Amino acid sequence: MRFGYGSSRFQKGFTLLELMVGIGIAGVLLAAAAPSFRTATANSALRGATIDLITSLNTARGEAVARRQDITVSAIGGDWSQGWIIDYADANLEDLEFRPEVGVQVIGTDTDITYKPNGTTDRASLKITVCDGRSGETGREVNVNRMGRLTNKELAC
Known about the structure:
The chain is an alpha+beta fold. The protein has one domain (16-156): minor pseudopilin epsh fold, CATH 3.55.40. 33% of the residues lie in helices and 29% in strands. The chain has 1 helix and 8 strands. It has one helix at residues 16-67; strands at 71-75, 84-88, 96-98, 104-108, 112-115, 125-132, 138-145, 150-156. The strands form 2 sheets. A 4-stranded antiparallel beta sheet has the order 3-2-1-5, covered by helices on one side. It has a 4-stranded antiparallel beta sheet with strand order 4-6-7-8, covered by helices on one side. β6 (125-132) and β7 form a beta hairpin. The longest helix is centred in the N-terminal third of the chain and has 52 residues, at 16-67. The chain is elongated.
């Protein structure tokens, strides 16, 4: 038996029409998934900035107690949205810098907070909100009291 070009037996591969239909279906599915992916990315950036902020404040408090010296967390250029720095008074230690992703808005009632060696702060309180440009989305509000304790809660942006 001879199998040649026109034979339907043992066909391998796709026809051009099948390939085009498959690409069309994939395009429709990707177009439907793209907005959901953008939302997930924005939510991840918001969560990441909040986690970095809380970690920075807890680290500064712990280091102040452990090193028995003042440790300051301050907004870069006075704007929390540009990032923040954990400023170690010890010249032998490199300051730690954190920057939120583009589009995340971080707004504080003050531009810095200093933790004392006993874990308290130099402020009666500090409130920092973390939101982004999307209206109606849930952000976070981080509060630090005089005793250096952190609380965080959801906030409608």
